[in-house]
Amino acid sequence: MYKNYPIIKASSKRDHFVQFNKNSKIEIIPNKELLLLLKEKSIEKAYGEANKDLFEDIEILENIDYISIIKDIKFQNLKQIEALYIKKPNIS
Question: Could you tell me the residue ranges of all domains in the chain?
Answer without folding.
Answer: 7-72
